[in-house]
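Holo prediction. Input below; ligand is 5-O-phosphono-beta-D-ribofuranosylamine.
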Amino acid sequence: MTPAFSGFFITGTDTEIGKTALTAALTHLLGQSGRRAVAIKPIAAGLEQVDGRWVNDDVQRLRAASNIEVQDQEVGPLQLRHACAPHIAAVLENVAIDRQALLAEVRRTAAKAEVSVVEGVGGFCVPLVEGASPWDSADLAVDLALPVVLVVGMRLGCINHALLSAEAIRARGLKLVAWVANQVDPNMGHADANFATLSQRLQAPCWGRVPFLLQADPAHIAPYLNAPAVLQELVAHPAPSPRQNIVILISGSGSNMQAIAETAQTEQWAQRHGIQIAAVISNRADAAGLPIAKRLGLHTEVLPHTQFASRTDFDAALRQLIDRFAPDLVVLAGFMRVLTPEFVQHYAGRLINIHPSLLPAFPGLNTHQRAIEAGCKVAGATVHEVSVEVDQGHILAQTVVPVLPDDDAETLAQRVLAAEHRLYPTAVRQKLSQKLSQN
Ligand code: GRF
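Structure of the complex:
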């Protein structure tokens, strides 16, 4: 299994055994090592009102332990009001938990950091969604494929809970990378003997034995953790890094987006090059490419330009939306909007387009008809950087197809489009590798 990103998944022998405290401490420790570290709690249950705002205490603590700028919503993308098992809270609150959407949110937050510490919900097998497609906390760990750290709440009964959890983690094909003993009962009898038994039986390294602390903040807990072992594990199992995010903009059929996404999957861009398609954004809700993107497991967003009074307003909102995905490359794939100079300048060097002609010939519309009328023997497509002047940016790649004697605009368009599907994915990957070598 290839991890979705670099980091760890934290589970525990039970609820209320210090999972959040350890997640925060591990995040703090990783931050101290000079890495950009974020803690994520995909599903948090239990909100309270503070200064008129509903907040989850765990999310607040995890956000504070992260050393990058993140919002509550990014640390805890799904926060339920009732402090109970999420599938029960979701029913009570009439919330439909969308697995793919939630995973996309987690990945998006993780993409902002170099390393992420993801806290599970309750114990390892807590249900998240009931019904025809059930989903539980263990599935969440599998979806993210992160190495698992088991927090053992040291109290009577913990040996059985710990051994069962370890068995379940391994049964899911996950790596139990380490465990941490967290003293939750200050008066536990035979604590040393329990610790010795766990050390012997868990068959995983212990990253720390945390005593019962009155101040359970990350800075106080982190010194009890074996920092060299934690960092060594990160080096031993690096996720594809550095990560590069692509955002694709479409308006219509999205066949170029599909070609890029399918090539990314076949060629394993995520695993081999750390390249991921972070989002597909359309300015039209009825774009045929949207359901295709969803089927390919991509995160989609719609921002209808018709809802904005001016081009400038729309472009500003689009920019805000795109930037949520921290893009290294913004790919226009049949995005039928002329962009404002401010927008183009904002993405200078990381905004590309494909145009169905051999630029500089035939910029603009009706390219195929114009190529036939001009008597061209060849036509083609161009991938270029987007500049303020339409279809005039630096040329990155071109492909050539013949113009056949019987061609009309339609048959020529089909031949060019098929060639675009070969050209664009290659150009995207080359552009990103080039950016990488320049960094
Ligand atoms: C392609 O012909 C591309 O060159 C042009 O718009 C068309 C998009 O097609 N910019 P699709 O939406 O990718 O199928």
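The first helix runs from residue 19 to 32. That is the main takeaway for now.
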